[in-house]
Amino acid sequence: MTSYNVSGSFVNFVTAISGVALVGSTELPDGKRVGTIWPRKPSSALWKKTLGPSVPLPSSTQKPILIDIDNYNGTALLGLNDRGQVVGAVQRADFTFRSLLIAQGTIVIFDYPGAQSTQAEGIRKDGTIVGTYTLNNVAHGFILHPHGQFEPFDVLRACGTFIHDTNEASDLAGAYVDCASQRMRGYVLTGEDQLHIVAFPRAGTTATEVHGLDEHGNIAGRFDDAAGRHGFLGILE
């Protein structure tokens, strides 16, 4: 296994991976969080096209590209595709978020219409973006289609829905709050609209979230029990 750490930073996250890079965030010594892009292979032409002239590229591929959006308290990168398009979120002073898209040399900040907070967490090759927005203090999933139309998504009878990832098969992965038990459960919604509920199969599990999936049925996420929080890798059945 390989670790990814920014020099001088003690808090580093890698949140998504594609064929061209890993993305995440790091907390700088002054306490500010900035986004990180770790190219997986020499691809300066790709990143020059993606980031444009406003973001300088590091001289070495061993160093991350740092993304710090002006006028916000922090930046986190949460998803990307094989075209080098990156999504994430920027944090406002009131600790709410706006979504971030970096593509074709342009940085776009956007919100779900009327939402208090919006986070983009996944993007397909065709430009479809998925994520979560908050309205009246309740979380809902969203799909932003390539031509600009927002589509809300909620798990039926849920008291809160989060979309954490998507794939090229149009599957969605995330978590929802079960109204009856008030517990967090994971889910995968396939491109054929089949909903699979995911709960880690261990006695004492109190919460499960699916944070990533691929086109082969592999899912990854985390679950909670009395001992703490744990990661998992599984296969959707």
> Mean of residue pLDDT?
92
**How would you spell out the order of helices and strands?**
EEEHEEEEEEEEEEEEEEEE
E-strand count: 19
Largest sheet, in brief, is: 4 strands, antiparallel
**Overall form:** globular
What would you note in describing this structure?
The chain has one helix at residues 44-51; strands at 11-17, 21-27, 33-39, 65-67, 74-80, 86-91, 97-103, 106-110, 117-123, 129-135, 138-144, 150-153, 158-166, 172-178, 184-189, 195-198, 207-213, 218-225, 228-235. The protein is mainly β. The protein folds into two domains: 1-123, no CATH class; 154-237, no CATH class. Strands 1-2-3-4 form a four-stranded antiparallel sheet, with no helix packed on it. A four-stranded antiparallel sheet has the order 5-6-7-8. It is globular and about 50 Å long. 38% of the residues are buried. The model has no long low-confidence stretch (mean pLDDT 92).
Summarize the structure.
The protein is built from 1 helix and 19 strands.
Features:
4-stranded antiparallel β-sheet, 237 residues, mainly beta, 2 domains, globular
Topology:
Elements: E1 11-17, E2 21-27, E3 33-39, H1 44-51, E4 65-67, E5 74-80, E6 86-91, E7 97-103, E8 106-110, E9 117-123, E10 129-135, E11 138-144, E12 150-153, E13 158-166, E14 172-178, E15 184-189, E16 195-198, E17 207-213, E18 218-225, E19 228-235
Antiparallel strand pairs: 1-2, 2-3, 3-4, 5-6, 6-7, 7-8, 9-10, 10-11, 11-12, 13-14, 14-15, 15-16, 17-18, 18-19
